[in-house]
Amino acid sequence: MADQTKNPAYVDQVVLAPDVPQQPPAAAVVKEPPQAETDEESVNQKPVDKALVEEHLSKHRCDDQENVLQSGSFKEESTRVVDLLDNEKKALQQLKQLVQEALNKHEFGGQQPEVPKEDDEKESSKEEAKDEAVIDDEPPKPETVAETNDAPVKEDSINLVETEVIEDKVATAAAGSDTVEDDGAKTVEAIEESIVSVSSSSAQPAAEAEAYVESEDERKGGKVEDKVVPPEEISIWGVPLLADERSDVILLKFLRARDFKVKEAFVMLKNTILWRKEFGIDELVEQDLGDDLSKVAFMHGFDKEGHPVCYNVFGEFRNKELYQKKISDEEKRQNFLRWRIQFLEKSIRKLDFRPGGICTIVQVNDLKNSPGPAKWELRQATKQALHLLQDNYPEFVARQVFINVPWWYLAVNKMISPFLTQRTKSKFVFAGPSKSADTLFRYITAEQVPVKYGGLSKGSEFATTETVTEITVKPAAKHTVEFPVTEVDRFSLVSSFGQWDPMYNAWGFGLLVQACLVRWEVRVIGWGVSYGAEFVPSGENSYAVIIQKARKVAASTEEPVVCDNFKVGEAGKVVLTIHNPSSKKKKLLYRFKSHPTTSH
């Protein structure tokens, strides 16, 4: 989806040609919907687009529909830490440190736990008790100090009180000295005692206040240590961050999307987590949004490497009723976007995020009958999905396969290709209508490909695990396919029974014999060939049995897959004959199975 800054989102969406060029991911978490184009802008753009397309018309209209343009050479990197390069391991460790710091500080949008009410009540009662204790311990203030002053006694104020008291004592002593000169020594002693007593009494509150401050700091320090806020717990796609080894696989996706630039990867991760919370992803996954769009996008089967395959069918929007119902205005496009995100989320949560597991998806984008760039509403819906997916779902696509690609899409792709990164282009595969099935078979086995795309996967008696054989039928040639039948090599008596036949007034006897039922499925891509089937027994005195006379199967047949069966009572083989009268090679697909049965 987003590997580098200029990489277009290649997860879970089909990007129409005019919208393919990648724009740098925005730093903001929430993306505003694109502004509607004015009529003047639309008029100005259309002639330019048409001119560019017409320039490539003669080059690509015929050739590109017959060829697969790109090979999809992208090779998926390992998700095991031991397989990483040294600089990649270092980047992973640095990112994990940043994530841990963010979790500790609750930077991903989590709320810090509230202090219990009991602790609040205890804290407030302790504060009140402490305040009362401080008030009771304070010495009586001199009358010269205003009683309304609640501020703590400053050192300058204490000195001022001391001076006034000492002066009063001295004045009293001096008056007494006029009458009693003999008591001079006592007067001096009294003055000294007064000074000492006043100094000690005034210093006592300051010492107590200082001691209280120290004990308060100790008490607060102890409380801070006791009430350490636990780290934030964050999960993304069902994987808790930094909880186990699966988290490394998630972080590697963000690192690879930003070319192992740690700070950029961290910003992307943080923005993704914040966006998921604001968008309400966890709640969205549980909502029922209906199944009206089940044919627009669906998961079906796996590729040859085990990746789940997602099919995007944009031709469904040719249905005017569906188009008007789902994307004709902004509100409907937002609902379509929510459905698309929900579909992707459910698909991702089925992936295996363990190291070495399958944690990416293969996208098959069917452009047959696609409305094209003329549909402004569809373009807007695609743009909105593109921005969200490229910024919040990095490295979730192993390959992007575009099938039934029209000529105009190939022409425009040629023009925008220089603006795409090599990593992005290595994941893209394009095929015209005549090569779509062959292209799919390069990456997905025929038993896993839906019937509508040339495969044999459908709701039948054959499972997707039963292998399909692929053969190329040469031009102007016949090809035969043989199914050996070895389960039955003779009539074997299972049981005998007798009953009275009133018509013949006699007993009738019968045998239950062991037989074999052979079933097969056969398909020729594009048909336009003749098909026939017969059973050839291995016994010398037995005769061949025609199962299906040779008949021509047209290319436009409504029965793309021939399903047939034949009950065999002796050893032999079923022979299918395919005659290709055309001058082109044909792809033949078939599979068969047999199981014992009984017959009278």
DSSP helix count?
16
Question: Going across the major beta sheet, what is the strand order?
Answer: 3-4-5-6-7
Give Rg in angstroms.
43 Å
End-to-end Cα distance = 62 Å
* CATH architectural grouping of the domain at 282-444: 3-Layer(aba) Sandwich
Look up the CATH topology of the domain at 282-444: Phosphatidylinositol Transfer Protein Sec14p
Number of E-type strands: 16
**pLDDT below 50 for ≥5 consecutive residues: which ranges?**
2-54, 56-69, 112-120, 133-192, 194-203, 211-216, 489-497
Mean pLDDT: 74
- Please tell me what the overall shape is: elongated
Q: Helix- and strand-based class?
A: alpha+beta
For the record, what is the CATH homologous superfamily label of the domain at 282-444? CRAL-TRIO lipid binding domain
Describe the sheet with the most strands.
5 strands, mixed
Helix fraction?
A: 25-40%
Please report which band the strand proportion falls in: under 5%, 5-15%, 15-25%, 25-35%, 35-45% or over 45%.
15-25%
CATH class of the domain at 282-444: Alpha Beta
Strands, helices and their partners?
Layout: H1 39-55, H2 57-60, H3 63-66, H4 86-105, H5 117-137, H6 155-179, H7 184-226, E1 235-236, E2 239-240, H8 246-257, H9 262-279, H10 281-285, E3 297-302, E4 308-313, H11 320-327, H12 330-348, E5 361-366, H13 376-392, E6 397-403, H14 407-416, H15 422-425, E7 428-430, H16 436-443, E8 469-473, E9 477-485, E10 493-501, E11 506-524, E12 529-537, E13 545-553, E14 562-568, E15 572-580, E16 586-599
Parallel strand pairs: 4-5, 5-6, 6-7
Antiparallel strand pairs: 1-2, 3-4, 8-16, 9-15, 10-11, 11-14, 11-16, 12-13, 12-15
Helix pairs in contact: 4-8, 4-9, 6-7, 8-9, 12-13
Main location: membrane
Organism: Gossypium davidsonii
Subcellular location: Membrane
